[in-house]
Amino acid sequence: MRFRAKAFGLHLLGSASALTLVLGSLYLGWYRWPGWYLSSVLHVVGIVVLVDLVLGPLLTLTVSNPRKPRPILARDIAVIVTVQLAALVYGAVTLWSGRPLYYTFSVDRLEFVQASDMDKEEIDRAQRQNPSMAPHWYSRPRWVWAPLPDNPDEAMRIVKDASFGSGKDVIEMPRYFRPWEAGLPKLRDQLTRLDDMKYFSAAEKQRLRARLKQQGLTADERDALVMWGGSRRVLAIFDTSTLHVRALLKAD
Prior knowledge:
Helix 1 (2-29) runs antiparallel to helix 3 and helix 3 runs antiparallel to helix 4. This protein is elongated. It is of the alpha/beta class and 252 residues long. The chain has three domains: 2-97, no CATH class; 100-183, no CATH class; 191-252, no CATH class. Strands 4-3-1-2-5-6-7 form a seven-stranded mixed sheet, sandwiched between helices. Strand 5 (224-229) and strand 6 (232-238) form a beta hairpin. The longest helix has 28 residues, at 2-29. Helix content is 50%, strand content 15%.
């Protein structure tokens, strides 16, 4: 039993170290709140943790028989580690492909943009036309203003295509992005009270009021906007004097 326990412990330590390195780097670099929540990546992380931190060490505990010939034991553990590495690579690639790139303000809402939302053509155009706002492989998430283009025909085409799902939205076109600070006057005009929002149910608003109270905030001020990320959304609360983000709260 001591042999099995030692093999289990070493395998668990190695798996935990590799998992912490990969997931920790992705979290610290890209998936800090609210990135992990809006991108709905917990199911991917759950699969990786289940395989690498639970099943792998448990299988090693099962196959580690001190009477088993060492070549066969080494083969069994190698198979287990290979499956673990495959799961880890799958998780890392999936998380990297969906990593958060932008938190955008456009027209009347905040929206979350992932790397998977950007195609190569748009990235190339942005790097030529608007290099300071263009994404790169090393880009960390940043807050930007994504206004519609000044050309009214182009703006109408983008709105029409996005509305009918036949084309890209402006938040997927970094060639139009501008610094976050440049859009703050327009953002101020869109701030509203929580009770006036139609995107949250009555139960969700009740939970949000409680979370606002916990943070010493109130739901009575016109200081809020909804932030969308796919099917998920959070409530963004701004300081009405500086327009700095004070809180990002989930409703569920």
